[in-house]
Design goal:
By secondary structure, this protein is α/β, with parallel strands linked by helices. It has a single domain, classed as Spore Coat Polysaccharide Biosynthesis Protein SpsA, Chain A. Helices cover 31% and strands 25% of the residues. It is built from nine helices and eleven strands. Helix 1 crosses helix 4. It starts with a strand and ends with a helix.
Length: 242
Amino acid sequence: MPNPIILIPARMAASRLPGKPLADIHGEPMIVHVWRRAMEAQVGPVLVTADTWDIVAAVQKAGGEAVLTRPDHPSGSDRIFEALNKHDPGARHDIVINVQGDLPTLDPNAIHAALVPLGDASVDIATLCARITREEERDNPNVVKIVGSMLDASRMRCLYFTRATAPWGEGPLYHHIGLYAYRRQALQRFIALPPSPLEQREKLEQLRALEAGQRMDAMLVDTVPLGVDTPEDLHRARQILA
C-alpha cells in the first residue's frame, strides 16, 4: 500500500508579503491554517518545512510537526526534499505531497484528488487544475494554464504549462493549481535536474519535469484555493475563513 507524507514548504522572505507564513488570520498564523487543512485530509503525516525557527515554533505551538531547513533553497521542491531526507532517511514514505504554505483556504479533498493519478504506474507526478470560468483570467499571466490531453472527464495528461492564453481556439482553458504528489524517486530525479530552458523562460518550475520526460497528470477539481501573495489576498483569506 502507498505510504504518503504531506510536506508544506514555508519561507519568510516572500517579496510581495514578507513574513506571510506568520500573518495573522483570526488569531493564528497562516501556516497553521494550512497545516490544519492538510491534517484534515487524513492521508498521512504532515510536516512543515521552514526556513526560520519562528515558523517552526508557531507550528509546534499549535501541536504540529516542523523541521528547519536551509534558508538558501531556490524552490519549495528543494526545501521539501531536504526535509524529507532529514525526517525519513529510511525512505518509508514512497509518495510525497507538496502543499504550498500560502493556501489557507485549501479544500482537504483536493489532496485526495492529487493522489488518484498515481494509481497509474506510468505517472511520475500528479497535480490539480480547475476550469477557468472568469473571462479576465484567460489572459492573465499570473493564472498559469495547463495544456493537456483529457484521459477521462476528470483527468488529463499534462503536455505544457504556460502563462499565455492556451490552447488557441474554441474550448475550455484550465487553471493550474500548484499542489503536487510525487513518487519519491520522481522527486529525487526532479531535484537533481538543472533548470530547463522552458522553465526559465516561463518562470514555471514544473516545466523542468516535462522537458526531462517525466509524466505528469492533473485531476480536475471544482475550485481554485486562494493563494495568498499580497495584503489584498490576506484580507480575502480572512473574509473567507471568518
